[in-house]
Amino acid sequence: MSFRILWIGIFALAFLCVTLFFALYPLALLIACGLRRRHRPHRELTAAAEFPFVSLIIVVRNGEHLIEAKLRNAFELDYPAEKYEVIVFSDGSTDGTDDIVQSFHDPRLSFLKTETHRGKMHGLNRAVENSRGEILVFSDADALLKADAIKKLARHYCDPQIGGVSGRNVVRQAGNELRSAQASYITFDNLIKRMESSVGSLTSNNGKLHSLRRGLYRTIKPGACDDLHCCLSVVLQRKRFIFDPAAQAMIPAPSRTPGHELTRRRRIVCGSLIAMLAHWRLFNPLSFGLYGLRLAINKILRRLLPVSLLLLLASTIALWNLHPIFQLLVGAQALFYAAAAIYPLLPRALRARLPFIKAPQAAFYFCIGNIGMMLGLWDFLRGRRFETWEPRTARDEDRP
Known about the structure:
Layout: H1 2-35, E1 54-60, H2 67-75, E2 84-91, H3 97-102, E3 109-114, H4 120-129, E4 135-139, E5 144-145, H5 149-154, E6 162-171, H6 179-199, E7 209-213, H7 226-236, E8 240-251, H8 258-278, H9 285-288, H10 291-303, H11 305-318, H12 324-342, H13 348-353, H14 358-381
Parallel strand pairs: 1-2, 1-4, 2-3, 6-8
Antiparallel strand pairs: 4-7, 5-8, 6-7
Helix pairs in contact: 1-6, 1-10, 1-11, 7-8, 8-14, 12-14
């Protein structure tokens, strides 16, 4: 009897954690948005004097197939030419990246590099040290910005309470078999960002396109997730970090292959936990109100999701004979994980053609991501730090 009570308690806790992240938290945000007075959007900047000077910072490693298109995109943005600069930092690139960057002779371009691979965080810190902008805009080499993206970000800084603004990712690349599942996840994440921004500040940031006031930038610790570190640093300094879905970055599907998703998720989870540990004071409700609770739900519970899912499966199996509801739950979980397991065994051509295959594809992507999160959590607990890594791009898609 005591074991049954224990399993009921484990089930209740695991079920609460899963539903809190996927259902209760979004519902609470939706209610909070409905109760809050509708925010009037900031007006567009028009007069030249209104535009702040912006530094667009790009850290790249071995991106010869990306950097030319990125720079052409950067210099074609709809922003006063005298009001922004582009800083490219090459992190020990060994391909033709440096030569391509140096072939551009635009006076707005500054080029920095290291001969050795030092990591993205080192590149960001160095680039900021050498920047002149009132506003720092960070964007990856594979993200092509919509023409008015920087204008959309900059318009918010007329409000002194705004310390940072995140843009929105739009998946543009076709041909990637995981694209549909990833696009759905990004849509859900953007929805959360939109509602969080309406009620206060974001608890996560978009690394492909985000910005902050220069004076609020804090040196990023080695191994920390850079975009989350910037977001939390701004909130810790009691400024808002908001989301503008109109500032768009067109990106390829973040993960090219299942293996890429695994390693990418592992690195991000470990880095985000390091960033949150560095900003632990945000969890103090006396200083930051409900922000710490929202951060715990959206970031920590999300990182603990694989643990919750394992406990949910184990507890429903242990309680099989207690009530038919547990048998239904076991069956539903078995069906879900079976679909995920079967998906990679299907012929690739079949996976690409059949419309109903999206359900097992989503299940497979979900499971791969959770395995990656579990590994990232383990890396964090044992003190591993991802200070450097090799970027993986669409060219690597067919590699094992």
